[in-house]
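Input protein
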Amino acid sequence: MQPETGSAELWKITLGELDEKMGVKIVEESVERVVATMPVEGNRQSFGLLHGGASLAVGEAVGSWAAVIHASTLGKTAVGVDVSATHHKSAREGQITITATPIHLGGTLTTHEVLLTNEAGQRLCTLRITNLLLDRKGRAGADRKGRAEKTS
């Protein structure tokens, strides 16, 4: 999918503090697919396995980036409203690859499937994330700081 004629430029991914601490690297970014990598080392829990919270954090980030890229084609932004994950297999070392692909790209909601795989291509975790698309200028009925305006 290409941005609509006259639409805003595609949003480019910028890593946040947690992404940097986790060692996330962006491999590919488009409306059709966002791909990133992350080392297992530095993201393990006390039993030496990839931390489930790290899997959720990186999966939510990559899925949200994918939603914001789509939203940018409509002149909007995206905020997460739901994420769920199933852990299939553990990892103790190496790099994982995180791939977000769209299930639904709407004008109000997006849903992405996010797969975390190991270096052998085995599925470690599957996430589903839904994002709400909002106008960039803010929400109707909100003041400049994001608080709901009183109507009385």
Remarks:
- Confidence is low (pLDDT under 50) at residues 1-6, 139-152.
- The longest strand covers residues 123-135.
- The radius of gyration is 17 Å.
